[in-house]
Amino acid sequence: MLIPDHLVYAETHEWVKVEDDGTLTVGITDFGQEQLGTLVYVDMPAVGKQFKRGGECGIVESNKTASDLHAPVDGEVVAINESLAQTPDAINGAPYEQWIFRLKPAVPFSAEGFLDAAGYIKLVS
């Protein structure tokens, strides 16, 4: 299982990357996509939509189940990965390259409350 060191992880199996401009890029982890199986649909949040930390902001769906996506922090969606509408299974092949949405946090990001790679490994082991 692949778990990059340069990201932080939510217990709900989203990964978060802090971009140079302070926005957050969000996707689902290798473990998360593996548990779901081949993805057939990704329901992404609308650009401009505001979310509270932990709020449900989308769905990833496979042939066997569906799972909610959660906002990692309070903030506004500034971009979505539109290519996933046509090829949701791209997440299965490259979960850390296929981001789902970008969020502009309401306050500067703090990794408090998130897991580093070692902590995430403990969670899923």
UniProtKB/TrEMBL annotation:
It comes from the Bacteria. Binds 1 lipoyl cofactor covalently. Its cofactor is (R)-lipoate. One of its GO terms (biological process) is glycine decarboxylation via glycine cleavage system. One of its GO terms (cellular component) is cytosol. Keywords: Lipoyl. Residues 23-104 form the Lipoyl-binding domain. The modification N6-lipoyllysine is found at residue 64. The glycine cleavage system is composed of four proteins: P, T, L and H. Belongs to the GcvH family. The glycine cleavage system catalyzes the degradation of glycine. The H protein shuttles the methylamine group of glycine from the P protein to the T protein. This is Glycine cleavage system H protein. It comes from Herbaspirillum robiniae. The gene is gcvH.
